[in-house]
Write a structure and sequence with these properties.
The chain is α/β, with parallel strands linked by helices and 261 residues long. The chain has a single domain, classed as TIM Barrel (Alpha-Beta Barrel), CATH 3.20.20. Helix content is 23%, strand content 14%. The chain contains seven helices and nine strands. The protein has helices at residues 29-36, 38-45, 54-58, 97-109, 122-128, 152-158, 201-213; strands at residues 10-12, 15-16, 64-65, 81-84, 114-119, 138-143, 163-168, 185-188, 217-220. α1 crosses α2 and α5 runs parallel beside α6. It is globular and about 45 Å long.
Length: 261
């Protein structure tokens, strides 16, 4: 479906559901949506979870696989940036290698699109890497909200994909000393929604400067607050909307780096 997420064009959810594993998950928008929005909850509860237990059948956010959604990217005529599983994590332990391979088969079949695979479980992505094909249109990223989970970047660095990125959203602490070797893109943003935690300006500036030192593209998504738009998007008087140059697809209308002042 079309999305308001600034750094992508579409979301594609052949998988839904997840479990919380770090501080960045505390106010998960996907969990809130799945459990509180009636239309979403009712649709999800009609699908059996991949780990079929009575508790998971009652939980709209238990991991579920939707093979009927695999065909969707073939229907998009124009090239798109596609956020894969905005409502889940491709590399959650409940999803089998076969299910993950089916998602990768579609992504590799659609080289006109850029697929942005964001995971909080890059260790599993690395373990399965030899059994997956990371075409040049498949970007792999991990979420790092503070230095407590900085180790995720170490696993991401070892994944043999063409573009690696960090999502520091919600940004919950300083990442001034996060090792960005081998990282091509850094996304940052404050938390939004009920109970949103404050993002300090210094953290955002440090994140930008760290990306600059390491020649990584930088995208500042939002300041957050009660709503995602309430705090605006400017950082130090500027709007940052940079993208990494997509290797091997120089002729793509989606390649290159752009900064909007």
């Amino acid at each position: 479906m079309s999305t308001a997420i600034e750094w992508t064009d579409e979301t594609w959810n052949p998988m839904t559901g997840c479990t919380q594993i770090s501080a960045g998950c505390d106010n998960c928008y996907a969990l809130t949506l799945a459990r509180t929005k009636t239309s979403v909850r009712d649709v999800y509860l009609r699908k059996l979870p991949v780990k079929d237990t009575e508790a998971n059948r009652r939980d709209a956010f238990a991991p579920r696989f939707w093979p009927e959604r695999l065909e969707k990217p073939y229907s998009w005529r124009a090239p798109k940036r596609v956020f894969v599983n905005s409502m889940s994590d491709v590399f959650h332990a409940h999803f089998s290698l076969s299910q993950i391979q089916q998602v990768f088969e579609v992504m590799n079949d659609c080289p006109q699109h850029q697929f942005q695979v964001l995971t909080k479980r890059p260790e599993r992505a690395l373990r399965l890497g030899s059994k997956l094909h990371f075409g040049p249109n498949i970007w792999v990223g991990t979420s790092i909200e503070n230095m407590a989970v900085a180790h995720r970047a170490d696993s991401l660095r070892k994944i043999q994909c063409h573009v690696r990125f960090i999502s520091a959203e919600p940004l919950l602490g300083s990442l001034a000393f996060l090792n960005l070797d081998g990282i091509h893109w850094v996304i940052g943003g404050g938390e939004s929604g009920s109970g949103a935690r404050e993002c300090e300006e210094q953290w955002a500036l440090e994140l930008r400067d760290n990306a600059r030192r390491n020649n990584a593209a930088f995208f500042w998504k939002q300041w957050g607050g009660r709503t995602s738009k309430s705090g605006g998007r400017e950082l130090d008087g500027q709007t940052y909307e940079e993208y990494p140059q997509q290797l091997g697809m120089e002729d793509s209308p989606r390649s290159g780096v752009a900064v909007v002042a």
